TrEMBL record, chain A:
UniProt cross-references to Pfam families, sorted A to Z: ABC_tran
Protein name (record): ABC-2 type transport system ATP-binding protein
Keyword annotations of the record: ATP-binding, Nucleotide-binding
MF annotations from Gene Ontology: ATP binding; ATP hydrolysis activity
Record-linked InterPro entries: AAA+_ATPase, ABC_transporter-like_ATP-bd, ABC_transporter-like_CS, P-loop_NTPase
PANTHER family assigned: LINEARMYCIN RESISTANCE ATP-BINDING PROTEIN LNRL
Gene3D superfamilies in UniProt: P-loop containing nucleotide triphosphate hydrolases
UniProtKB/TrEMBL annotation, chain B:
Organism: Asanoa hainanensis
Protein's name in the database: Transport permease protein
GO MF, any single term: ABC-type transporter activity
Gene Ontology biological process: response to antibiotic
GO cellular component terms given for this protein: ATP-binding cassette (ABC) transporter complex
Main location: membrane
Residue ranges annotated for the ABC transmembrane type-2 domain, each copy included: 44-271
TM stretches of this protein: 46-65, 85-103, 124-146, 158-186, 198-219, 250-269
Length: 269, 273
């Protein structure tokens, strides 16, 4: 029972001519918060989509709790709670209804459903807003609602793609707090991507830096910063600049992503 | 509070063996429940979507009934038209689902649904019958309008049950058709155009407005491969008692829906990529 939560060996993925992921090896240990860091376009989302079996992956490349993702897709998905980058709650449903849908899709037994839905909403601090339509929620509340959706099935692995993108600083802080609280309570493994180095430095047990489809620099934030040899005041951002040769933001792509997220936020009201 | 949120026992991963009909049924129920919840939050859509069928019945139907221009075999034209308009209103609802699924793809909703333990075919079947639920709600509105205009529909519960099944299957098929096209074009703007472009031809190249015998030869051929015609024939037979090949109509709708589900689920992976 000591296999890692996620093990990736030699993952390659190509969109046409573009190598989105180019030979990634990655191990996420049980119970840790692991951050996959890098600018937009580094291959983080593609890696995550491969782990969730949204993209076709050959056998013997990715295992989740010892299950081969290529062979046991449905079994793997029962273990995963996933929150995509976009604000993806359904604005035309209430908070309770949004979470109840995922309870049904994960076969939470009918007798437990109501209680589990209420509990997931409570953990995310949404009990008071539970009856309101999600389109009346703020961006931070929608993110927390999505976390409640992901948690209602009691996943062993929580996968979050850019959980704080497009949120204001207070909402970001609140999202990180809830993630930390859930992990402390349940010992759940969390795998997330972000391009906010500061947030990763504060919240992740270990991080991996991704750049142009490759993963280098794996370790605790402290290890990576110390390894840089620039003293205690250095930051993860410095580590990343040293590793990637300077470019933290692929600006064009970055703007496009932000715009897409804003659009989503606008749509939700 | 930590008990339900604790990690599930290792053995529970084997629930995925429980594939097949039960799993599909549970997903269909889940997605239909969501559809009903959405309807209950916003009933205005039922009204706005009733405008067009109401116009067809009130203006086109009433006028042509007076003109006696279309031979309908002794049935008042409005009675003849009403089942056609009922089918059309469910069709228009379903065609919208292709646009919706592209929107769900852009918003990350589709990815989130596909990362749940829900096989693609179950997801598509769920969407198809969710469209059926909406189509049915729309059909009830059209039924009421037609009754108000003096159309005498059947009140036989068994026949009405048949109507429910026909509307569900028709809506499910056109939803799958729309999702299949969405899986091919992958763009919301193009999908809007295509949705508009196929809706009216499907409607006009069917027996919804006029009997098949009035159609030119080439249109009769199109009519014979248009599932909407079989849907209308069945609805007309059940609702106003005109002659209908009910076993054939049901068989065509069932097979069309099954083919639609297979085609749409095959293209769903393209949408998720």
């Amino acid at each position: 029972m000591s296999e890692p939560a996620v093990s990736v060996r030699g993952l390659h993925y190509q969109f046409g001519e573009t190598k989105a992921v180019d030979g990634v090896d990655l191990t996420v240990l049980r119970g840790e918060i692991f951050g996959l860091l890098g600018p937009n376009g580094a291959g983080k989302t593609t890696t995550i989509r491969a782990i969730t079996a949204l993209l076709p992956v050959p056998a013997d490349v990715i295992e989740v709790f010892g299950l081969d993702v290529a062979k046991r897709r449905m079994a793997v998905r029962r273990l995963i709670g996933y929150v995509p980058q976009q604000l993806s709650a359904d604005g035309s449903l209430s908070g309770v209804e949004n979470v109840a849908l995922f309870a049904r899709l994960f076969d939470v037994p009918r007798r437990q459903r109501k209680e589990r839905v209420a509990e997931a909403l409570e953990i995310m601090g949404l009990t008071d807003a539970a009856g309101r339509l999600a389109k009346t929620y703020s961006g931070g509340m929608i993110r927390r609602l999505e976390l409640a959706q992901a948690l209602v099935s009691s996943p062993r692995l929580l996968i979050l793609d850019e959980p704080t993108i497009g949120l204001d600083p207070i909402a970001r802080g609140s999202v990180w707090e809830r993630i930390a609280a859930v992990r402390a309570e349940t010992g759940m493994t969390v795998l997330l991507t972000t391009h906010y180095m500061e947030e990763a430095e504060q919240s992740c047990d270990r991080v991996g830096l991704m750049h142009q489809g490759k993963l280098g620099q794996l370790g605790t934030p402290r290890e990576l910063i110390d390894g840089l040899g620039r003293g205690p005041d250095a930051t993860l951002e410095d580590v990343f600049r040293a590793y990637s040769g300077g470019s933290l933001e692929d600006e064009q792509k970055g703007l496009r992503d932000v715009r897409a997220t804003r659009r989503t936020a606008g749509r939700l009201g | 509070m930590s008990v339900p949120l604790a990690a599930p026992p290792a053995g529970s991963v084997d629930i995925d063996r429980r594939m097949g009909p039960r799993l599909i049924l549970s997903r269909v129920v889940a997605l239909c429940v969501v559809e009903l919840q959405k309807l209950s939050h916003d009933r205005s859509e039922l009204v706005t979507r009733a405008v067009q069928p109401a116009l067809w019945l009130v203006i086109f139907g009433v006028t042509f009934t007076k003109l006696h221009a279309i031979p309908t075999g002794g049935v008042p034209y409005l009675d003849f038209l009403a089942p056609g308009v009922l089918a059309q209103s469910a069709l228009f609802v379903s065609i919208f689902y292709g646009i919706q699924i592209i929107w769900e793809r852009d918003a990350g909703v589709l990815a989130k649904l596909m990362v749940t333990p829900t096989p693609r075919a179950a997801l598509v079947t769920g969407k198809a019958f969710a469209a059926g639920v909406r189509g049915l709600a729309q059909a009830v509105v059209v039924y009421a309008i037609a009754e108000l205009l003096g159309v005498r529909f059947t009140v036989n519960p068994l026949k009405l049950l048949g109507v429910v099944v026909v509307v569900l299957l028709g809506a499910a098929f056109f939803c799958c058709l729309s999702v299949t096209i969405a899986g091919l074009v992958l763009s919301r703007d193009r999908m809007m155009g295509i949705g508009q472009a196929i809706m009216m031809p499907l409607f006009f190249a069917s027996n919804a407005l006029y009997p098949v015998s009035l159609m030119p030869g080439w249109l009769q051929v199109v009519n014979h491969v248009n599932p909407l015609s079989y849907q209308v024939e069945a609805l007309r037979g059940l609702l106003i008692g005109t002659p209908a090949r009910l076993p054939l109509d049901f068989a065509v709708l069932l097979v069309a829906t099954a083919v639609g589900i297979v085609a749409a689920s095959g293209l769903l992976a393209r949408l998720a990529r």
